[in-house]
UniProtKB/TrEMBL annotation, chain A:
This is Ras-related protein RHN1. It is found in: Endomembrane system. The lineage of its organism: Eukaryota, Viridiplantae, Streptophyta, Embryophyta, Tracheophyta. It holds the Pfam family Ras. One of its GO terms (biological process) is protein transport. CDD domains: Rab5_related.
From TrEMBL, chain B:
Residues 499-599 form the FUZ/MON1/HPS1 third Longin domain. It comes from Penstemon smallii. It comes from the Eukaryota. This is Vacuolar fusion protein MON1 homolog. Plays an important role in membrane trafficking through the secretory apparatus.
Length: 199, 613
């Protein structure tokens, strides 16, 4: 980790989760600093990019905001293939969306890049009074599965930038800027990045 | 209702089919009959229709609530009629219409009245423009928040599910003039224009019962008439589409609309969705369509304003020939590299398009594609990459579409067969964008939007005297857009020369059409819609396979003189003042055709390049 003097890193990041969990809202909050009360359904996947400065390095995220609808599930590999990071989003007011999130985690563990940095986002944290999924429950699940967990609110911006920042910090530094199109190496030796999770 | 749904498959079919269809038709008749009987006391009679019209005009354009109630019969006489119709059913040839005629006034117990009381303060306050992705599964709490003010202006139509709180028991639901339903062959609701699909399960089952009963008899039901209502059926494998309408549109038009609705479904899911039904006949498809209400409602809305939906032709944004050529050239340039189709569009109008060798794009696919993209807000947020199926190109397979908006109205679509071509397409887009900016195309597009298309007031007095486009906009000096300085023909009343109000010209060779801008007296969206429907009828009568096709038609009614003229090269549909002189109208049509030919290379995309079709 000492050799990250002035690195430019391209990292493909994918957001997965049930429809209506707030994937697009999180991305738009992160990329544009905006929030729409009525965010329309994403079709297919929307592409964004945003650059973060982390410890003398810049990380350029190439973000795939996928659609949560069932009809797109079979197409998800197209978007998470080669991703360096994934945010699995659920809505803390919906147990269904939490179950769906667990399925995504399983799928990524089976099919995804083994060194992928995975974050679990319990979104809509501002709706405390409608909460159905406790923070504890989600945290335990995340720890068991090697994800790091944050509760976020795209509406109030709580923890949104922090989460992307945290991902940027955890990205393995091995992959440097020779990746022009943001396609990320899949066949690097495992470095145990999955074992790290929030303390 | 639900009990009837089983009738089609029951073992009693053989012995007594009559009673079964009787029940099914009876069920739907009862639905329709109760529509008219349930809502208002019959004391509220005959209010002048104009008043109703005026009141409704305040309303949001698409809120098609019946002003005039369905003429109906009480059940006793109704049954007799259905039995009579049943005799027909037994004898009909393949694919014949079933008509259950409840003629107005044919029985002493028939009655009719107009709806006076409810010309309407918004029927339900929750006409939410929010098409939320919550769909059927989660977060229903927010659904009633996005209240939207509707008004009569066409451009302000708001997409999305309407009145999701309604079901077939709601008075307001029953009064909607035009329903569309998609259901599965097991009777499961897939889509309903109004109301909540899940609550309409019983109604869907009834529709399914009617269809499958007739199918079991080795026949196919296409149309049921019940008073003013037409029930049109379209069967596409395991997917059934039904339109119930009292708009008096011709059967062929309604059927065409169902075909497009099906096409839209295929565009989203491909025809391989049929396999889900092979595996599980009771498969529930609603979840697969989550978040697409806006796509369907916007398509259905276009059935009442976009002539492309019945002409099967597309329209282009008017642009200088050289500008369009420049766009075509750059699209052509990228089309070589793995791109199947490249389209630059402005709203629903084509700026330019090219296809890879031998690949051609059907106008219906253009319509469905642009409807899909413009009605889905998410494409505007950022560049997207999404699976898209073009039903006329290949209904079985997805293409992958890269979509990027250059400004609020102008967007680029690049279609490819390769699912990992995103970065390629993104690079192509950047190249295209650079060229478009350098050659000022985007600002010319904006200007063309402001200038609009052909205006009947501008119809040249002697179009033959002018050869070719010498002027910047559709053969006109720019100041002429200021209407005060316009020289008018000697015969003007309201509208254009010789009482010309509007025209549509379809070039058969180019698969394109041009429609004049609406101007006085066709100002309100209501009048525009009425004219649109008149064109639709005219088109359908010109193409009537039974009696036509015709070459010319001149018809006069209390609203318009309509003139249509079909040749090998073009079709012209024109509307005049109802008092217009016939000879002058014909002469004017000739002038319109000449005018269109003169500005042809500005209003049409002339496919000159070798790659295009």
């Amino acid at each position: 980790m000492a050799n990250m003097s002035h690195n430019n890193l391209n990292a493909k990041l994918v957001l997965l989760g049930d429809m209506g969990a707030g994937k697009s809202s999180l991305v738009i909050r992160f990329v544009k600093g905006q929030f729409l009360e009525f965010q329309e359904s994403t079709i297919g996947a929307a592409f964004f990019s945003q650059t973060l400065a982390v410890n003398n390095a810049t990380v350029k995220f190439e973000i795939w905001d996928t659609a949560g609808q069932e009809r797109y599930h079979s197409l998800a590999p197209m978007y998470y293939r080669g991703a360096a990071a994934a945010i699995i989003v659920f809505d803390i007011t919906s147990t269904d969306s939490f179950e769906r999130a667990k399925k995504w985690v399983q799928e990524l563990q089976k099919q995804g890049n083994p060194n992928m940095v995975m974050a679990l986002a319990g979104n809509k944290a501002d709706l405390e009074d409608k909460r159905k999924v406790t923070a504890e429950e989600a945290r335990i699940y995340a720890e068991e599965n090697g994800l790091f967990f944050m509760e976020t609110s795209a509406k109030t911006a709580v923890n949104v930038n922090d989460m992307f920042y945290e991902i940027a910090k955890r990205l393995p530094r091995a992959q440097t800027s020779q990746n022009p199109a943001g396609m990320v190496l899949v066949d690097r030796p495992a470095e145990g990045s999955r074992s790290s999770c929030c303390a | 209702m639900t009990t009837d749904s089983n009738s089609s498959s029951s073992e009693s079919d053989d012995q007594n089919p009559n009673s079964n269809i009787d029940q099914s038709l009876d069920a739907i008749e009862n639905q329709l009959a109760s529509i008219s009987m349930s809502s208002h006391p019959p004391t509220a009679t005959s209010l002048d229709e104009d008043v109703v019209d005026e009141e409704n005009e305040e309303e949001e354009e698409e809120e098609e609530v019946e002003e005039e109630k369905l003429v109906s019969s009480v059940n006793g006489s109704l049954n007799e009629e259905i039995v009579a119709a049943q005799a027909k059913v037994d004898s009909i040839e393949h694919e014949q219409h079933i008509e259950t005629n409840c003629k107005p006034g044919s029985s002493s117990s028939s009655f009719a009245w107009r709806d006076t009381t409810e010309a309407e303060p918004p029927l339900s306050p929750s006409s939410s423009g929010y098409a939320g992705e919550r769909g059927s599964t989660s977060g229903g709490d927010d659904d009633d928040i996005g209240e939207v003010e509707h008004d009569g202006v066409l451009g302000q139509w708001v997409s999305g599910k309407r009145h999701p709180d309604e079901d077939d028991a709601s008075v307001s639901w029953r009064k909607r003039k035009k329903h569309f339903f998609i259901l599965s062959h097991s009777g499961k609701p897939i889509y309903s224009r109004y109301g909540d699909e899940h609550k309409l399960a019983g109604f869907s089952a009834t529709l399914q019962a009617i269809i499958s009963f007739v199918e079991n008899g080795g026949d196919r039901v296409k149309l049921v008439r019940a008073g003013k209502h037409q029930v049109v059926f379209l069967v596409k494998g395991p997917i059934y589409l039904v339109c119930i309408s009292c708009t008096e549109e011709p059967y062929e038009s309604l059927k065409g609309q169902l075909e497009l609705l099906y096409g839209q479904l295929i565009l989203i899911l491909t025809k391989s969705v049929n396999r889900c039904f092979e595996k599980n006949p009771k498969f529930d498809m609603t979840s697969l369509l989550g978040g697409t209400d806006a796509v369907f409602s916007s398509l259905i809305h276009s059935f009442s304003w976009n002539p492309a939906t019945f002409l099967h032709a597309y329209s282009c944004l008017p642009l200088a020939y050289t500008t369009r050529q420049a766009v075509g050239a750059i699209l052509q340039d990228v089309a070589g590299s793995g791109i199947l189709f490249a389209l630059l569009m402005c709203k629903h109008k084509v700026i330019s398009l090219v296809g890879a060798q031998k690949a051609s794009l059907h106008p219906d696919d253009i319509l469905l594609l642009s409807n899909f993209i413009t009605s889905s807000e998410s494409f505007r947020t950022s560049e997207s990459f999404s699976p898209i199926c073009l039903p006329r190109y290949n209904p079985m397979a997805f293409l992958y579409g890269y979509v990027h908006y250059f400004d609020v109205d102008t967007y680029l679509i690049l279609l490819t067969t390769s699912s990992d071509a995103f970065y390629n397409l993104k690079d192509s887009r950047i190249r295209i964008e650079t060229v478009l900016l350098k050659s000022n195309v985007l600002s010319e597009v904006q200007r063309s939007m402001l200038d609009g298309g052909m205006r009947i007031e501008d119809l040249p007095v002697d179009p033959t005297s002018r050869a070719g486009p010498m002027y910047p906009h559709l053969g006109l000096p720019r100041p002429a857009t200021d209407s005060s300085g316009r020289i008018r023909d000697a015969h003007v009343g309201i509208g254009g020369p010789a009482g010309l109000w509007h025209f549509i010209y379809r070039s058969i060779y180019h698969d394109q059409f041009v429609a004049s801008e609406f101007s006085a007296p066709i100002n309100s969206s209501r009048q525009q819609k009425r004219l649109y429907r008149a064109y639709q009828r005219l088109y359908s009568s010109m193409h009537d396979k039974g009696m036509g096709p015709y070459k010319t038609q001149f018809r006069r009614d209390e609203n318009y003189v309509l003139l249509s003229w079909v040749t090998q090269d073009f079709e012209l549909y024109a509307a005049f003042d109802p008092l217009a002189d016939k000879a002058l109208a014909i002469k004017t049509c000739n002038r319109v055709c000449q005018w269109v030919k003169n500005v042809e290379n500005e209003i049409f995309l002339l496919g000159a390049s070798p790659f295009s079709w």
